[in-house]
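Deviations from the work plan: none for this task. Representative record:
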Amino acid sequence: MRYSQYYIPTLREIPADAELASHKLMLRAGMIRKSSAGIYSFLPLAQRVLKKIIRIVEEEMDRAGGMQVLLPIVQPAEIWKQSGRWDVYGEEMFRLQDRHQRDFCLGPTHEEMITTLIKNEVRSYRELPLRIYQIQNKYRDEIRPRFGVMRAREFIMKDLYSFDRDEEGLNRSYQAMYEAYERIFTRCGLAFRAVEADSGAIGGDVSHEFMVLAPSGEAVILYCEACAYAANDEKASAALPPVTMEELLPLEKVATPGQATVPEVTAFLGVNPDRLIKTLFYQTDEEFIAVLVRGDDELNEIKLGNLINKPYRLASPEELAAKLELPVGYVGPVGLKDKGVKVLADLRVKTMKNAVCGANLEDYHLRHVNLERDFTVDTYADLRLAKAGDPCPHCGHPLAETRGVEVGHIFKLGTKYSKALGATFRDEDGEEKPFIMGCYGIGITRIIAAAIEQNNDQDGIKWPLPIAPFQVTILALGVEQQAVAEEIYQELTAAGVEVLYDDRDERPGVKFKDADLIGIPLRLTVGPKSMAQGEVEVKIRRSGEELRWPRPEVTSRVLAFLKEENQRHSN
Ligand code: ATP
Ligand code: MG
């Protein structure tokens, strides 16, 4: 490709509203332009990257038994009402009506659509398993679209749905997808990690997220360096500390005037925060719920939501005062049962002895509070946010923390959608059974942003070779060098190399800057000095390494470089 005939509208200035490196660089490298919030046009360079990613994804999905289809983007409300998600999805769903005032949405995901299709088509266990996927635009009216294509309102997703007759079948499909995902992200040249993820209120289900590791990623990952454990912070857990062997001391009420926060109370009483029981109040339509966590722990709202498993909200100080006569800042579990409050507690609370908590009386706390003797708990569960340094739940080694961008999510659905939509098949025993389903997504357009987030420097993008828009760029510094550059361009193109030849009538400085910004893995420069010596200047974008290659060897050396790089990312 000749740069002079190609459309790469690079920008010198840094776009004002872009925060993340990938967002800035995609705008500056002339890859995307914003249409409205979270909705983008993909320009030629981005389109080339997109196609490369799609190709890798298609190859691996097909290899894992996937069959590609294309489902409608415009979906009727009825199927969403049947699954119960028409209301649950809320404002993230783009809704529209046709001329007959019938309700539709723009598909944010396709479980309802595919389940309805399969319900009407597949009758017998003999037709299973089925693994069906598509690569298509998805629409989500994100509350905060940001970071360019990273969190967009229109984006491209690969979504595969598996249909099996039993749990073993689902496990096989899930495993096949897990391995396909590992191959996909390896082949894209990305450093990534699969982590255990929260699978929502449907207990017992399994889910993994695939994270491209990057310090700017939205997701927090806790992982163990000693064993294979890794989970996102919504899901992560930690081993419990041992129960301390302490003698139970008599309960004591102490005046703590004006000491309402954890730091205040612990400083005032001269105890560590891990001695304190924090009591938080929530309410559902039916009841008040108190949640106990240790003073040095934070509550994990996702875990709490899964446990409560119905709509709930934080109870306001006014409600607590009016309905339960509880003074905020001085609350604790002792006596809550008498007020009809349900008590949930994090597992760590069970290990506490001689604790401190509020006395449910303004300006007073209790000391030497002990479980069973002084208060009881209805349900214990893992309810705390795990953090770096906690002991690994599998092996006890301290957990480490890193950040990532979620690029893929795989999920065992079970019969959630097949039951709701009445999608059944006739099994070998003649019985009608609901399909056992899984769903498996990849954010294709998000991969582009994640790849840049992981691979950039102050000058621009450093594409991993497998998804680079071009493999090699050639720069001719002056008019005298154009004949040689042209020759190399022809030679490499004939050898099947994807070349961007910068033949523009621009100053060398401009060409160097653009080459670094666009980030093509290998840069060949024909300048006056090197040409006189019969050589070509070479720069490897990723490492910054600079070399000189004799002119006659250029093509064979380029091919050797590409081969070696590609081998690094193969599997
Ligand atoms: P997130 O937690 O980031 O909102 P999600 O859990 O809503 O993601 P899924 O419904 O599992 O995402 O979608 C599958 C994949 O689609 C995600 O792993 C991600 O790569 C991609 N994706 C989801 N939302 C967006 C978005 N708004 N813009 C771009 N890609 C997205
Ligand atoms: Mg989301």
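The chain has 15 helices and 31 strands.
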